Amino acid sequence: MPYYKTGEILDKAIEIERKGEAFYNALADKAQDEEMRSVFSFLAGEEKSHGESFSKLLEQFGEHRTELSWDFWDYMAGLQLLSDQGVFEDDKQTVKQTYMDQDAASLIKTAMQFERDSILYYSEMRPIVAAEAHGIIDELVEQERDHLRKLIGLLKTLDQG
């Protein structure tokens, strides 16, 4: 039966959060509106915190092996596709060059898509990580949902303004 090491999937989660932090910091730097700057700064801090949470899980469960009853390679290809299609670039400068010519609404929609992608990735990785980590994964998914709600509210405020 195929197996998967939890550490490999947590490495991807840490990378996603690192990219998210850089993205939100770049948006906060660009924001003209104080409310937008505040929301993006908050989200950057949240992404950093999530990365730290995943790092702790990696230390605790990185060597955990999960046996899979489904086609391992198909499942892994799907997870790899999810992580590769993330909206964030690797460094802050690339993020600025890629996204800074977009208007505020487009940037918020891009951020909303990232949050949706994160929710999907973390929900899909849950069966692979050690059962003892499921509560933490569930909490992080809920926080990503909260980020999405904040961004939806910000977009509505922008549309009304």
Overall description:
This protein is 76% helix and 4% strand. The protein is elongated. The protein has 161 residues and is mostly helical. The protein is built from six helices and two strands; from the N terminus they run βααβαααα. The mean pLDDT is 79. Helix 1 (6-30) crosses helix 4 (92-99) and helix 1 packs antiparallel against helix 5 (104-125). A two-stranded antiparallel ribbon has the order 1-2.
Features:
mainly alpha, two-stranded antiparallel sheet, 4% strand
Number of helices: 6
Which stretches of 5+ consecutive residues score pLDDT under 50? none
Number of DSSP strands? 2
Q: How much beta, percentage-wise?
A: under 5%
- Please identify the structural class as seen in this structure: mainly alpha
Pattern of helices and strands:
EHHEHHHH
Give, in spatial order, the strands making up the sheet with the most strands: 1-2
Euclidean distance between termini CA atoms: 57 Å
Our Rg estimate from Cα atoms comes to 16 Å
Mean pLDDT: 79
Largest sheet: 2 strands, antiparallel
- Looking at the structure, what is the overall shape? elongated
What oligomeric assembly is this protein in? single chain
Helix content: over 70%
